[in-house]
Amino acid sequence: MLNQLKYVFIISITLFIPSCKGQVKTMSKDDKAAEDLKIEPYQYGSGDVVNRGYLDKSGNMWFTTLKEGVYKYDGKEFTNISEKDGLCSNVVNAVLEDNDGIMWFGTNKGLCKFNGEEFTNIPLPQENAKSVSPETGIPSRKTETILSLIQDRRGDFWIGTDAAGAYRYNGKSFTSYLKFEGRIQPDNVYNNCITSIVEDKNGHIWICSFTHGGLNEFDGKTMIHHPLKDGYGDGMISTSYKDKEGNLWFGTRNGGIYKYNYNKFENIADAKTGEQIAMASVLEDTNGTIWIASFARKGVYIYNGNSFIPLNLKENEKLNDIKFISEDADGNIWFGGRYGLLWKFDGQELKDFTQLKRMN
Question: How many CB atoms lie within 10 A of CB 233?
């Protein structure tokens, strides 16, 4: 039976990818709350990352982690789902609910399918060792680890791996894409790490490489490569996002944020200072506000079309190394990241759930 963790209403007042294949925090007010309840605060390290926040069709929030499996939050209680409950692995990088209401998790052991009662493991194909690039004769690195996962409008799943490019999965078979792209590694193999995948308003699939493979757009027949001259620095794309108008946003490692309106790519920088934000996550909330946070710097920002405006609230400076921004069914904004960080902003206050999500 899944372990139910009760949510305690306390107003308290945060690794990109461990590899594309700790130090300990000081006690916060949230830790002190746990101590007051006679619960010893869990000592999170830098490798403890809450890396995705996802809203399902029933209004539940799902939070994936690199060490603790998955947390499900129904608005009142947290439920921790881990290997002891049947989850395929406690290392989870991606989550989605499919068209039939089934939950899927991308783990370091392939796909994990959850129908609400049972878990089913669907391993990634392990390519034949003789499979090599027809141009270079060099093979791709093998992997079981999934970093990104979407379901397209046709019902197919698109899977980004940490080393072997991307796959399309139709429920029966896998089709491989882009495994022979990106920078060749010192051990003479390709290692194309796909951190993010997004479907645009035309049904094209955009595949983002974090290992110098840049952006690739699949129109259903042809893979269109958007080369480095389009301005992606060294071709390392960390995140992607589609806003309400269908524009695409891409966070890069060292080239800031790019916005694509289907005509051109625009580099998003502060109009006054020229400041760029590296490895950024982007969210447009229900009110049309554009939120920006980074896995490489402190703080959370609102982008007003010209400038990055810091979230001017007490404790904002503790929102460090943010891996995702998500919105729940009530319009609350959630942030997660390194050191097990999980915070919620309800429009007025920031609340720290880093320890509270674990409490009985």
Answer: 17
Instruction: Write the pLDDT tens digit of every residue in 259-311.
Output: 999 998 888 989 889 889 989 999 999 999 999 999 987 789 999 999 999 98
CA angle 340–313–72, rounded 5-degree value: 35
Q: Collapsing DSSP states into helix, strand and coil, what is residue 149? A: strand
Angstrom CA distances, 35 to 5, 9, 49, 76, stand at: 17, 15, 22, 21
Token duo for residue 343: 């915070």
- How far is it, in rounded angstroms, from Cα 244 to Cα 262? 14
Residue 57 DSSP class? T
Distance of CA 127 to the CA centre of its chain: 26
Q: DSSP assignment, residue 289?
A: P
Q: Are 146 and 111 in contact (CB under 8 A)?
A: yes
- DSSP letter at 34 equals H
Return d(Cα 254, Cα 234) in angstroms, integer.
8
Q: Quote the CA–CA distance of 108 and 26 in Å, as a whole number.
A: 30
* 111 within 8 A of 121, measured Cβ to Cβ: yes
Please tell me the pTM assigned to this model: 0.88
In the chain, where are the structural domains located? 3-358
Higher pLDDT, 228 or 226: 226
CA distance linking residue 334 with residue 336, whole number of Å: 7
Q: How many whole angstroms separate alpha carbon 30 and alpha carbon 55? A: 24
In contact, 332 and 348? CB cutoff 8 Å: no
Distance CA 323, CA 188 (A): 31
- What whole-number distance in Å separates Cα of residue 339 and Cα of residue 353? 12
Place of tokens 């009110």: 287
Q: Are strands 280-284 and 265-268 parallel, antiparallel or unpaired?
A: unpaired
Share of the chain above pLDDT 90, in %: 73
φ/ψ (deg, to 5) at 94 = -150, 155
> Per CATH, which fold does 3-358 belong to?
Methylamine Dehydrogenase; Chain H (2.130.10)
